[in-house]
Structures are given as C-alpha cells and as structure tokens.
C-alpha cells in the first residue's frame, strides 16, 4: 500500500483531512502528534 503524507502548518487541517479521507476510503490514518502522545503518555 502506498502512503499519503499531509504536511503543513499547525492548525491547517491536516488531522481533519486525514481522518475524513480515512473514513471515506476506509484507509488507516496515523497522526504523529497522537502517536507521540501515546508513547510518552503526555498531551501537548
């Protein structure tokens, strides 16, 4: 499976667009901020 990377400034809608694409096409989505928060068990 190929990947699509969404890049941009904070607050530009990357997470929103990624989750929307995930829901529409049943694709997995990984938000690096969320993954880091899980790993260190802290919120930003």
TrEMBL record:
TM ranges: none
Listed InterPro entries: Depp_CoAkinase, P-loop_NTPase, Shikimate/glucono_kinase
Family annotation (SUPFAM superfamilies): P-loop containing nucleoside triphosphate hydrolases (SSF52540)
Gene Ontology molecular function, alphabetical: ATP binding; dephospho-CoA kinase activity
Gene Ontology biological process terms from the UniProt entry: coenzyme A biosynthetic process
Gene3D superfamilies assigned to the protein according to its UniProt record, in alphabetical order: P-loop containing nucleotide triphosphate hydrolases (3.40.50.300)
Any single Pfam family the record assigns to this protein: SKI
Keywords per UniProt: ATP-binding, Nucleotide-binding
Protein name from the UniProt record: Shikimate kinase
Lineage of source species: Bacteria, Bacillati, Bacillota, Bacilli, Bacillales
């Amino acid at each position: 499976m190929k990947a699509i990377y969404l890049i941009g400034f904070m607050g530009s809608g990357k997470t929103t667009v990624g989750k929307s694409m995930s829901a529409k096409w049943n694709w997995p989505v990984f938000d690096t901020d969320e993954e880091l928060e899980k790993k260190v068990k802290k919120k930003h």
